[in-house]
Amino acid sequence: MDDIEATREIAVRLVRAANAVKADFADAVAPLGLSVPSARALLLLDEPMPMRVLSDRLTCDQSYITRIADELEERGLITRAPGEDRRVQILKLTRTGTRMRRTVFAAVSETNRVALRLDASDRAELDALLVRLLG
Amino acid sequence: MDDIEATREIAVRLVRAANAVKADFADAVAPLGLSVPSARALLLLDEPMPMRVLSDRLTCDQSYITRIADELEERGLITRAPGEDRRVQILKLTRTGTRMRRTVFAAVSETNRVALRLDASDRAELDALLVRLLG
DNA sequence: TATTGTTATACTCTATAACTATA
DNA sequence: TATAGTTATAGAGTATAACAATA
After folding, report:
1. Which of A3, A126, A19 minimizes the C-alpha distance to B125?
2. How many beta carbons lie within 10 A of that of residue B105, not counting itself?
3. What are the pLDDT digits (tens) for B74-116?
4. How far apart, in whole angstroms, are the C-alpha atoms of residue B135 and residue B133?
5. Per-residue model confidence (pLDDT) at position A1
6. Cα(B112)–Cα(B125) distance, integer angstroms
7. Which long-range contacts (CB under 8 A, 24 or more apart) does A32-41 make?
8. How far apart are CA B107 and CA B103, in angstroms?
9. How far is the CA of B78 from the C1' of C5 (A)?
10. CA neighbours closer than 13 Å in the CB half-sphere of residue A30
């Protein structure tokens, strides 16, 4: 069996594994009525931060954060408040948002197949390989 | 550091690594004027097959194959021909398609970071972990 | 002039539903 | 009636461009 072919197979499996992880995440947050991007944002909001910072952490465009913030704000999970620099909007979890963040965290942790299917030494091995892959 | 937190970090890195692999693939096929799904389909068309079989291998809906086949046909890379069962359309690479498939294969192989960043034993390790993860 | 955020728009990947032709 | 493929449509996730306000 061709070496190149075998290596491509691994790449395909890597993408499949990531899809499975994402599907697990989506299944975990769907019952909470949150979209995947909003749930991801919620997890990142461990402390108040400007929308710009959130877009950096989510690695997405700033304009997309407006949409996510709208959704979270409508659900009463965050507030927007202007920063000292008047251009900046600081996103901050409400009390409901803090509770929801914990709920999301618990839900996605329970369904995380990295935890479910790999023991500690496997996880360490995988992590090292992924770091090498990401360079 | 929390164990749950660390495990979630690995899941995040897994998704990032897969995104990197996909981005490599997209960058490799973009200069050829192919969309990612069409390039994927092309790689799977190692022999003539019904659209239904291709949808199984791409793990997507049949209706999506119609779109992909349209694109490949317009580019002169495949032909549709009815099978013995008159409901079936057999997709078959043209000569140009066969050449293009080889070009795609070479291009994505060259940019495949699994090959570039991991040696043979790392790859075997990674593969085993991914299989376990996919269960 | 550069940056934050907003708005409007559009693109990619993909699925669902309703349909047709054949089996 | 079940299956292969098509068509039209829709939805999720995300980006681009133009813009307002502030720096």
Report:
1. A126
2. 18
3. 999 999 999 999 999 999 999 999 999 999 999 999 999 999 9
4. 5
5. 63
6. 17
7. A32/A100, A32/A103, A32/A104, A32/A107, A33/A75, A34/A75, A34/A100, A34/A104, A35/A71, A37/A64, A37/A68, A38/A68, A38/A71, A38/A72, A39/A104, A39/A108, A41/A65, A41/A68, A41/A69, A41/A72
8. 6
9. 47
10. 7
CA distance B54 to B44: 7
CB B7 to CB A112 under 8 A?
A: yes
Say whether B4 and A109 touch across the interface (CB within 8 A): yes
* Helix H or strand E encompassing B9: helix B3-29
Chain B: give the shortest CA distance to residue A96, in Å. Answer: 22
| Predicted confidence (pLDDT) per residue in B30-79, tens digit | 999 999 999 999 999 999 999 999 999 999 999 999 999 999 999 999 99
Counting every residue written for chain B, the total comes to 135
Name which of B90, B79, B85 is nearest B52 in CA terms.
B90
Q: Calculate mean pLDDT across residues A48-70.
A: 98
Tokens for B58, please give them.
Answer: 């791409």
pLDDT cut 90: percent of chain A above it: 96
